[in-house]
């Protein structure tokens, strides 16, 4: 690409623009003249569909043509750039650009460039105005209690949603551009006097290593900067809720927003992060603690219930009471497959139905999931392919898997379920224990930008204060400090003064 820094001729600049945008029919070049006598040549250059045409027409083009007639001819000739910039254009943001390559980059992102004949610099007029989706309720993180606004595909709108929740000058937004061809706008969000500086520098360093043609979604960045690409467990949290991003930043974490996607990345994470729901922090602590325990039990069921069925029926029927063992044997009478094959068929069918339900239109998808499960389950039992108890176990497992708040973690758990089933079919309960130990060792070695994945459970002595918000949640007034696992700066976030002001009796009431 040619670089022009000192050429003042309008035609030469426009020739370069036309050459670079050859066969780009959406490029608009509006040439015009200002002044009464011999007009001064100018040109507005932009891409149709990326700018606010009303803004450019009413506050730029109209002002340039009309107001220039009121100016003195000598003033137009002697200092036309300053006249236009300071007295004519009613645009909120105007920037001088000397490098035409920089001008082309701004045209591609939706800005309008004003070229002036005889002036070496051009003016960038802020004019982005493409069609956008309005703020709506998040689709993947629905809550009963809490904010109902979610991110959209417009980066500036998303950063403003977070800024509304963090009215602090220490809240920083660093704008980046990633993708050699896509030149996607990316924003790095953090609170300067809270964030762990080592984590922030590591995030910046990894982002700087990205060298790719296009960034279309946060998933592209996630895969390029994560610690272990071969792990089933996500090492970054994605969310479409501004309140989740704001709460994470208050804990000392870092967020990444990408233009054209409503999902944000939050870094770093622990296993505990994916077992919590945004609603946990809006409900009273007793209710939240009970729900978290229920969620933990459901997670255990979704992971181990089919494998326990396989292990007990195939290797350890003597562990059951006699009556239950006889009943189990009776239900399996006539089933031609071993327990593992029986469970694999039902679990595989469930995954097919789940995937089909996700890809189909929403009303049809919900129907396919419910009706398909009922029909296939009943038909399989009547055909004698599976036992009735197996259908019940698969149904409980499916329902339990929906209790995991994080979709990407739930997928990892679903894959692990098959690993435990396979281990149980070979070694019984010992196989389940062995597979669980392997997974546990993997989790213990896993890091998310230097943060141990099993924190704070893996370092109870060091991070004992963080246990107040893990498997259960203690009252909010007891969580005085920020999570130590995420940051070591400005650790105090709450000074509970009610007891001091009103006394102990008031709290007990």
UniProtKB/TrEMBL annotation:
The chain crosses the membrane at residues 293-312, 364-383, 389-407, 419-444. It comes from the Bacteria. The keyword Transmembrane helix applies. The keyword Membrane applies. One of its GO terms (cellular component) is membrane. GO terms for biological process: spore germination. Keywords: Membrane, Transmembrane, Transmembrane helix. Belongs to the GerABKA family. This is Spore germination protein. It comes from Tepidibacter thalassicus DSM 15285.
